[in-house]
Amino acid sequence: MENVLRPLIVIGGSVVLTLLIGWVTDVLLSKADRRHSETPLWGLLRRARVPYQLVLCAALLRGSYDSAKVLEEHRIGIGQTLTLVLIGSTAWLVIRIAGAVVETTYSRYARVHRDAARVRRVRTQVTLITRVVAAVVGVVAVAAMLLTFPAMRAAGASLLASAGLIGIVAGVAAQSTLSNMFAGFQIAFGDMVRIGDTVVVDGEWGTVEEITLTFLTVRTWDERRLTMPVSYFTSKPFENWSRGGIQMTGIVYWHLDHSAPMDLMREQLRDILRACPAWDGRSCDLTVTDATPNTIQVRALVTAKDADDIWTVRVTVREQMIRWLSRHHPYALPRVNTADAALPPGIPAPLRSPDGAPSRRAHEPPRTGR
Q: What pTM, to 2 d.p., does this model score?
């Protein structure tokens, strides 16, 4: 009877105690979250309840397993497994807690500062810091797991002795990866590009969606994702439309006839912009920038508060101005001018039939009398 009750008490008591402590902790975090709703820390910590309970259960079982006297012939293997689970769950819990603290710090900063550019900069730095912490904790956890094996501890001296050679080989083999990692830090803390910035890369216009230590993702206007190494942004030029402020000036071109009513077009441009919600009211202008024998090039300058609105303003002005010209001033649209060719002196003009086509006599040679 003792051989049956002892394992049930030890294992069952560990599980029940884990669930009880986890439930009490969750209730306390819930009350703290309701009491301090201005900070998301307590709500984020509640998401760590799974690794928290796993750590408790593994620690209790590891400490009380010898008293249970179950599968004693496999005692070493089971103890090793519980140790590995404890190390892994502890690393998982540390990553969750660190992520909650960093996210709470960012949320407080975003509420205090209204500058969108600075908030995006901090967001980029916070994201990379979280990834670095997760990578460091993961590496330490894996190293701790390996050191629990006696063979690994015995080989520790030889590994340390060859660490210099291994570091040189790894550095040469992972040169591009390391350069991307350092480029990621340079982007994060050098304020070159931030999450949410509008950029133009290789002729593609889009928004920076994700920045990691090795790559950067740009979401284009047609919902495609461009994944590029972060070293690209430190070695090649690119356009950052959000750098130094998000206000923008857009250009709209038309090719029109020389008789286009410029003064009326300027008035119509102002009317179109007043009815466009995306226009920020800062500036508008319409001028002739070029002329050819057949057309003139008319340029309109418009402004908006960001890249999305400037696109809306440009397409609205272009479409409504063309519609207004075709409806009220169709002569202003480009035309192909044709005229009869001027013949050299001494050659008579061709005769034409009543329908306008040259007659047969026009192609006959001139007759001479006898």
A: 0.46
Beta bridge partners of 254: 298
How far is residue 249's CA from residue 238's CA, in Å, rounded to a whole number?
A: 18
Integer-rounded Cα Rg, in Å, for the chain is 38
**What DSSP designation does 363 have?**
G
**Residue found by looking up tokens 């209730």 in the block:** 27
| 253-262: pLDDT as tens digits | 999 999 899 9
Is the backbone of residue 191 left (phi > 0), alpha (psi -120 to 50) or beta? left
Q: Which residues of 89-125 are buried (b: 16+ CB within 10 A; e: fewer)?
A: bbbbbbbbbbbbebbbebbeebeeeeeebebbbbbbb
- The predicted-structure confidence for 276-335, as pLDDT tens digits, reads as follows 999 988 888 999 999 988 889 999 999 998 878 888 999 999 999 999 999 999 988 887
What is the tens place of the pLDDT at every residue in 264-285? 999 999 999 999 999 988 888 9
Tell which residue, 124, 119, 116, has the closest CA to residue 108: 119
Distance CA 29, CA 283 (A): 53
CA distance linking residue 19 with residue 26, whole number of Å: 10
CA distance 227 to 215: 7
Distance of CA 45 to the CA centre of its chain: 27
Q: What residues contact residue 232 under an 8 Å CB cut-off, 6+ apart? A: 201, 216, 238
